[in-house]
């Protein structure tokens, strides 16, 4: 009986810690960066070409334009991803677009609301891309989970930026 009480106590404590996470951590933030051995103009142009996204984000199956604005800011896209046989539909909205400086993208993938703020700078003919990412959710349970997956999110975004770097440098 004592072992059962200990096990239940541990489970209760872990549950309290898990659910308290959502009370204290409202969003998950991280930063990653990559340096591309190409000029800023080339990197920024290739990064913002929707057709190229499939070449550095392998899960993208299809990108459809919902609304394309002349100034780019406010443009919206429907993106269909395939991940391990599961199709995920999300929307992408361009929140900010400053040529050769910044692109801010907002993604709504059902329970995951993610903002990717990409900053571009050039030094000695090389372009540095810095990604400041923020993940949050309308779902309380998902809000509790995100902090524990911060490393996974960061690893995935770092891989995408590395894929982009390799794609652009091969051109």
From TrEMBL:
<keyword id="KW-1133">Transmembrane helix</keyword>
<keyword id="KW-0808">Transferase</keyword>
<protein>
    <submittedName>
        <fullName>1,4-dihydroxy-2-naphthoate prenyltransferase</fullName>
    </submittedName>
</protein>
<keyword id="KW-0812">Transmembrane</keyword>
<dbReference type="GO" id="GO:0016740">
    <property type="term" value="F:transferase activity"/>
</dbReference>
<keyword id="KW-0472">Membrane</keyword>
<dbReference type="InterPro" id="IPR023393">
    <property type="entry name" value="START-like_dom_sf"/>
</dbReference>
<feature type="transmembrane region" description="Helical">
    <location>
        <begin position="7"/>
        <end position="25"/>
    </location>
</feature>
